[in-house]
Amino acid sequence: MAAAAAAGLRSGLSASVEHVVTAADTAAALGSGNLPVLGSPRLLAWLEAATCAAIAPYVGEADSSVGTRMNLEHVRASPVGATVIARCELVHVDGRLLRFQVEAAQIEATQVEAAQVEAAQIEATQV
């Protein structure tokens, strides 16, 4: 990872992404269950998208991050049509290791999940 790009990575960076749950996002469609509600794999992908958005201004074009550890507690079902906001905050930087506190909330209700995501900075050409 380019030193200049990584130089701005610091605790406190944050981002959020907003999605409307569609049939393609459901546990039934993703194979993670048979219910027509937001599937945990899609929720985790949205949370990771928020982490990517938080560090995007500081990551060079030839660099990326990859999730290395996730601890997910999916506590509420979100039906098709629900709007879900995935938020993150970078809470720890140690060299290439980034630790994010993440959460998702359904606009029409309360918290959907709470989690912690760890990622490592990598050079995309080494994948």
List the helices and strands and how they pair.
Elements: H1 3-6, E1 14-20, H2 27-30, H3 40-55, E2 63-74, E3 83-94, E4 97-106, E5 111-123
Antiparallel strand pairs: 1-3, 2-5, 3-4, 4-5
Pattern of helices and strands: HEHHEEEE
For the secondary structure, the number of strands is: 5
Q: What is the approximate shape?
A: elongated
Described by strand count, sense and barrel closure, the largest sheet is: 5 strands, antiparallel
Separation of termini?
Answer: 13 Å
Query: What fraction strand?
Result: 35-45%
The helix tally amounts to 3
The SS-based structural class is alpha+beta
Q: What would you note in describing this structure?
A:
The chain is an alpha+beta fold and 127 residues long. It contains three helices and five strands; from the N terminus they run αβααββββ. The two termini are 13 Å apart.
Key features of this structure:
alpha+beta, 5-stranded antiparallel β-sheet, 3 helices, 5 strands, 43% strand, 127 residues
Brief summary:
With about 130 residues, the chain is an alpha+beta fold.
